[in-house]
Amino acid sequence: ESSISYSSIEDIQLLSWENAPKYCLQLTIPGGTVLLQAANSYLRDQWFHSLQWKKKIYKYKKVLSNPSRLEVVLKEIRTLVDMALTSPLQDESIHQAPL
């Protein structure tokens, strides 16, 4: 067993089955997929939004650490602020994530 880095997650999908109350997330990584099962839909949705948040923060850190053009940096900062303000997560650290 080993951990999965946020940078290696290619896709995150919510999964549900019509006849079975399973609350799952599917993570697509270079070596295949990982299926995570939560106890309820609320927890699954929190995992989903948290993973999306971490993945996006990683992307923004990468883009902002190697600025190429000022207009690209400004666009990414605007997008980051919009994402933070509209995030469904309820945690103080979301509005204060260090870049």
Q: Could you please describe the fold and organization of this structure?
A:
With 99 residues, the protein is an alpha+beta fold. It has one domain. Helix content is 42%, strand content 19%. The chain has two helices and three strands; from the N terminus they run E-E-E-H-H. The protein has a three-stranded antiparallel β-sheet with strand order 1-2-3, covered by helices on one side. A hairpin with a 7-residue loop joins strand 1 and strand 2 (23-29). Helix 1 (41-65) packs antiparallel against helix 2. The chain is globular.
Task: Draw up the topology in text.
Blueprint: E1 11-15, E2 23-29, E3 32-38, H1 41-65, H2 70-86
Antiparallel strand pairs: 1-2, 2-3
Helix pairs in contact: 1-2
Domain C-Maf-inducing protein PH: 1-64
Pfam families: PH_21
Protein name: C-Maf-inducing protein PH domain-containing protein
